[in-house]
Amino acid sequence: MKKISFRRILPSRILVLSFIVIILIGTFFLSLPIAVNKGQEISILTALFTATSAVSVTGLTLVDVSMIFSPFGKAVILILIQLGGLGIMTFSTLIFTLIGKQISYHERKILKEDLNSYTIGGIIKFLKRIVLIVVGIEIIGAIFLTLGFSSTMPLKKAMVYGIFHSVSAFCNAGFSLFSDSIVEYSSNITVTLTISILISLGGIGFAVINSTINYYKTGKIRYNLTSKLALYISFFLTFGGAIVFFVFERSNPGTIGNMGIIDALNNSFFQSVTTRTAGFNSVPMENLRPSTVFLFLILMFIGASPGSTGGGLKTTTFGMIMFYVMVILRNEKDLVISNRRVPWEILHRAMTILIISILYITMVVFLILITNEMTSVKDIADAILQGSIQGNAMVQTNGLTLDKVIFEVMSAFATVGLSQGITADLNIFGRILLILTMLIGRVGPLTFMLAFSEKIKVRTYKYPEENILIG
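Request: output the structure for the sequence above.
Response:
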């Protein structure tokens, strides 16, 4: 039998497998009796769902985390969030570095994939700085959140809650120790603004943070094109989303309609920030107007920036596609952004990610809708073979409306964690589909696809060219 060398395994495949292993380990610990409060119990599937949601920094849950899980279980969830947010390979490499182990070239390639970095040069130094930055930001965030929570709870409890929510916010996880997320603190500007800043820092990308810190150290700032796009688009989406949310919901008494102008603006900003990838909510999701729900779908789909703790299509991918549209409309030959010509290979990758994402989300929504009324694999097979799926099943199944299913799947794929309350209503097939969706959303759809594909084969010949009419 031919021995398979670790070094011959694709970095993307190792990355995906590392996430799966940590999820399974997390599932084991969350399945232990000590992980839940006395008198409570959860199934293996619920433990798997929660572990996947934590590692993928999503925040969707089948149960109320604050009520079901014990301090041990919450600690496990917090560790999984931190591992998933920074990247499993980042942590393992850091540990190996601290004990004096040399990091091989292949391991650096895996780390490059995990950090979404350009090159492997200086990547260990970059990794150490990232960890220091993250720890520093989370400590500062925990201090401010402790101050915010201390107004309604004892100081010791406020410290615990401050640490948990600081890590959850920076990692864009959206897990909360409150049953209503942050709705209770919608008028506490210390809490909402701190969480908003933590989410923004975690979602902007480590390279941007590192470049900004270098500016204060050297007085010179050098943002590459990726960082510039991430900053510009994030700024536009954050403040544009806040304005649109404020306009849509200002007259809605179920959300911000009864708030004062300051609280209304603050919560509009908070929801715009958290909707793109974090999953906290300061207003009830079920009270949103349809137009606002549609806005949230757009923000969730675009998501955070590359090399960050967030998910989604990514701001730079969205920016590339928008610039490409302008190039076509202007009938230009090259794709030029900020006086830099971008290789067409980058656009091809962006378009591939877009198409795969849309197709995957569509497929999962379709499968959840047609399987929600089924109770077994045999029922599903019989329905497909006999063509007995009813037409109205595509509109509503067991109370799951099409818009809510789309919202749930989009939230899982973009690792956001916002929900309109249907997560626990999904059957076993729907829950498994969301588990897979959260995993794919965290590692990236293209990375996931490449992990299970063969190595690139370059043809030594070319076929004749022929045009195809389109448009």
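DSSP finds 19 helices and four strands in the chain.
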